[in-house]
Amino acid sequence: MGKLPHCEGYATVRYYRSEDEPSGRLLTTCGNRRASRCPSCSRVYAADIYHLIKAGLSGGKNVAETVRDHPRAFVTLTAPSFGPVHSRKNDHVGKPRPCGCGTHHVEDNPVLGTPLDPATYDYTGAVLWNAHAGQLWARFTTYLRRALAEHLGMTQRALNAALRVSFAKVAEYQKRGLVHFHAVIRFDGPDGHTTLPPPWATFDALQAAMGLAVDRARLTVESDAVGERVITWGSRFKVDPISTLGDGELTDAKVAGYVAKYATKNAEGAGTVDRTLICRPCQGHGYVRGPDGFRDLCDGCDGTGQAEPLPDLAVQQHVRQMIRTAWALGHLPEFADLKLWKWAHMLGFRGHFSTKSRAYSTTLGALRDVRRAWRLTQAEAARARAGLPVSDENTTLVTASAWTYLSSGYRPGEELLAAQVRHDIAHCERLKHEKLVPA
User: Fold this and answer.
1) Rounded Cα–Cα distance for residues 105 and 165 (Å)
2) Degrees, nearest 5: CA angle 316-408-323
3) pTM
4) Which residue range is the domain that position 150 belongs to?
5) At what angle do helices 39-58 and 364-385 cross, to 10 degrees?
6) CB 277 within 8 A of CB 307
7) Is residue 203 domain-shared with residue 126, that is, in the same domain?
8) What percent of the chain is predicted at pLDDT more than 70?
């Protein structure tokens, strides 16, 4: 509920109460980036990511257009193997090869990505890899600069003085439940995107340094329960040049489109759920503290800490086992800081899906500010056309009482109306695409 109360010395020009809305509530956008949770907000987020990535490749949004002449690469880093899984592979001439189980799987076969032998699959290693993937990426960016200096035969200090490495990356889930990273890496001069990199900073140098950095970047995890684990990258990685003239396989627009598509995905590609599994009343602990300060068994989850029983999840056994493993590891003292029980529905991955270096391009906040300013301009233009006075920021004071969060989503009746609106919009778009009605 919100309203604008009268303030001493000011005249109230507008008064708003959420009780006056037909539903008694103020509906607003949720801002969720995940397409599985909110298609509308995810499309806005994907558009922002697209412009952010493309600005770093071809200029615009306060980025110099000369960046399109800088060496740029589209990089893919994957996780190592934790056991053989069902897959679809081709030989060197593109002919399909049989899976390890002896059959040829179709593309949408649900067994793809699941272990050939679940009893020997390293679920602990897989979950721990997901949990440390963000840290491994950070270490990789450090080793990439070191490997580049080594390959070029110069010191780290000299490299940093002459070259800046800028990047933007996004995470995506594979069918086997492990994340892999797609990244745009760009070479800049010492002053960032406004300066050209040195002539020795080439794509070939980046490709050579990538191999060294992938091999050397590693983390060591020690635990009494699971022993010592070394977190490394998989042996398969790709480094592809991004076309400058727009006539290659990977152009600026294509790469930006790829990254924007990946950014709105959650873990649904791995077949898991898109909601947290922790019990809200006890926050996953299984107990709540009563008035006497003692721990009382949570009535909402019967002490399990789970919002819904894991055996009842409508997922494959492979995904359920990864969720169970993440939940169990998260309650070990040595992994308490990872909070894996909180990220069990993400199969242990707890990092940001999209990140960028400071100097790569614009920011999501700046893009939102531009969109907000455009909306305000449109609103003022509408007020002017209606003959209403245009507001002045220097003489207008806006005050509001605190808003109270009620819930997410529509009520049943509202959901029915929203579904009908979505159907009508999709139907009209389809007719326009088929050119049955004028655009």
Assistant:
1) 41
2) 25
3) 0.83
4) 69-82+122-247+353-359
5) 110
6) yes
7) yes
8) 90
